[in-house]
Amino acid sequence: MPGMNRFLPLVVVLTFITSIVYVADMRLCPRFFSWVAAMPHLDKVMHCLLMGSLAWVANIALRHHRFSLSSTRLLTGSCLIGIIVAAEEYSQQWFPARACDPWDFLADGIGITLAGLLSPGVAQASRHVSP
């Protein structure tokens, strides 16, 4: 079980974000979300930071595992988070308190991409690549 400790940060961040989504979907804290909505672009910044954090810990938990798609090597964790985020964003159309917003999805994608680019495993791997 010692190897499972690497997944603990992922579980913590995923639980935190899932809690935020649940609270928003159920309209449990309207004052907070009204405050966020009133601050210009804060919602998009939060999307970027939260999904970027989730992708960051997913990539670390998966030890920066990559897979090939055509001639491109992609981080498995970032791709998995991207799929989950796309499904969650799409599902918002069925919740009265939420809206399926392509700008939110773009902010999520920027966060996920930045997390992959700034990941220590990616930086380390690029230093070991010979020209």
Protein described:
The chain has 131 residues and is mainly alpha-helical. Helix content is 67%, strand content 6%. The protein has helices at residues 8-25, 30-38, 42-61, 76-91, 102-118, 120-127; strands at residues 66-69, 72-75. Strand 1 (66-69) and strand 2 (72-75) form a beta hairpin. Helix 1 runs antiparallel to helix 3 and helix 3 packs across helix 5. It is globular and about 45 Å long. The mean pLDDT is 86.
Quick description:
The chain is mainly α and 131 residues long.
Which terms would index this structure?
2 strands, single chain, 131 residues, two-stranded antiparallel sheet, 6% strand, globular, mainly alpha
Spatial shape: globular
Mean pLDDT: 86
Rg over CA atoms, rounded to whole Å, is 16 Å
Helical residue percent band: 55-70%
Strand content: 5-15%
Structural class assignment = mainly alpha
Task: Work out the number of β strands.
Answer: 2
Low-confidence stretches: none
**Biggest β-sheet, characterized?**
2 strands, antiparallel
**Helical segment tally?**
6
- Element order: H for helix, E for strand: HHHEEHHH
**Terminal Cα span:** 39 Å
Q: Give the spatial strand order of the biggest sheet.
A: 1-2
